[in-house]
Amino acid sequence: MRRYLAMLPLALLAACSPAAPPPEQNPPKPQAAASAPDNPVLGSPQWYAWVDQRLHISDDHGPDRGSDEWNRAVQHKLGQEAPAATPGSPQWQQAVDALLRTRPAL
Q1: What is the pTM for the complete model shown?
Q2: How does DSSP assign 11-69, residue by residue?
Q3: Does residue 21 lie in a domain region?
């Protein structure tokens, strides 16, 4: 009987302990999305900077982000994956954003 009474605290402790740690509330983001800004406005300076960082378009001498020349450079870098929409248009920006969020950085 003493053996059972001595084991009772251990049994209660084991019953109250969780079997496994709780799952993470916020799982880590994939690497491609980690470098993306959370919700930049398409066409904003933050969005252009992110696209530029991903594709390495501008340097110290240009082209200026968002200019026709810059948009053509983005099209060229994307190659066959480039959106068919008019470069610089809202539809084009949305397509570029979606494409860059799903592919690894260059």
Answers
A1: 0.62
A2: HHHHHHS-SSPPPPSSPPPPHHHHTS-SSPPTTSHHHHHHHHHHHT--BTTBPPTTSHH
A3: no
- If one counts the domains in the chain, the total is 1
Quick check: is 7 in a domain? no
Cβ 68 vs Cβ 88: under 8 Å: yes
- Region class of 37: left (phi > 0), else alpha (psi between -120 and 50), else beta: beta
Separation of alpha carbons 41 and 63, rounded Å: 21
> Can you tell me whether residue 47 is helix, strand or coil?
helix
Domain that holds residue 34: 27-101
pLDDT tens for residues 54-74? 999 988 788 999 999 999 999
